[in-house]
Amino acid sequence: MVTDELLSIKELSVTLQNKTILSETNLTLNFGEILGLVGPSGCGKTTLLNTIAGFNALNTGELKINSLTTNKANTAVKQDTLTITPYQHIAPEHRNIGMIFQDYALFPHLSVEKNICFGIDKLPKSEQKSRLTELVHLLKLTGLESRFPHQLSGGQQQRVAIARALAPQPKLLLLDEPFSNIDARLRNELMLEMRLLLKQLKMTAIFVTHNKDEVFTFADKIAVMHQGSILQMGSPAKVCQTPNSWQVADFLQLGSWIPVKVVNDQFQSAIGEIPATIVPISATTAVANQKKLQTFQLLLKPQAIEYCQKHNEKSNVKVDHIAITEQGFHYLLSSIESELFFNRLSFYSDILLVLGQQIAIKIKPHKYQVFANI
What we know:
- The protein is of the alpha+beta class.
- The chain is 21% helix and 35% strand.
- It has helices at residues 45-53, 112-116, 125-138, 154-166, 184-200, 212-218, 236-241, 246-251; strands spanning 5-16, 19-30, 34-38, 60-70, 76-84, 97-100, 172-176, 204-208, 221-226, 229-234, 256-263, 266-269, 272-275, 295-300, 305-308, 317-325, 328-335, 345-349, 358-363, 370-372.
- It is elongated, with a radius of gyration of 25 Å.
- The longest helix has 17 residues, at 184-200.
- A 6-stranded mixed beta sheet has the order 6-7-8-3-9-10, sandwiched between helices. It has a 5-stranded antiparallel beta sheet with strand order 13-12-11-14-20.
- It folds into 2 domains: 5-247, P-loop containing nucleotide triphosphate hydrolases (Rossmann fold, 3-Layer(aba) Sandwich), CATH 3.40.50; 255-372, no CATH class.
């Protein structure tokens, strides 16, 4: 049976130097999809890439890599599967996976042409030349074939690294923070270029990043990792709209956290009340919610805050920090009341306020998201 899945990982765990880095990790990726792998430092992102590539052995679980054979009509007619388990290791060179490292790892003593052809040097010269010509054209490296890495810009070095990884025609491309060494002005342009290229080649890819904005620009899916496991995976928009845990929401910086508690079927906060009955509480709070005075955390996005300009409104926050951004003035607010106090609420406004000024704000009706106390 032919499946859409190129990669399937089930209950994967990896231990390095007597320390468990990945634990019960599950992931599936379809042919042609681009996945952004994000999470805090040390959560296992690079270890997962290295394990898929074959540089780390599995302790438990299973990893399957599928490949398709198509007919002249470009219809899949056959599927081959590599199955990797703790008892069946397949060497990296037999997995047909390309990898681009953070520092590109170009050979400094080789020209652009020889760097690109390094992994296909056993092919006939005519085939090497054909692939080189195609990749140089696709990656806009024409005229740079005889240059050495130190004679190239950061963006050009990245293109050479991509061309070298694509030359063997891998079924899966792995990228470890591919845009971190690129100047901020060029980063977005290069991301769009690379995405178009991968889509043109129908290439499946996984890339590691710390920057959620890169995921929105580059990826079809996002997977958020925490302490060696994938907490949530889906389209970037869906994950950001409905995070399944406070760890996901907190890492993606989806808003600010303010404490709330349930009193008489209302969630009370330092800046107002909301009906507890209409709040979709995270499943992790189901037990804690039985304790009516339990404190929870409300995820509050800047667009859900309303500035009250009426003079009769009682002030409930003060301005602690002011910055200027493309969205207007950015303020960090702290609550005035001591009960249910918060000290870092992010708020944007076109109105110029003064440092230390006390103002009144309230919570707009929206799809509230409440989680157990962090």
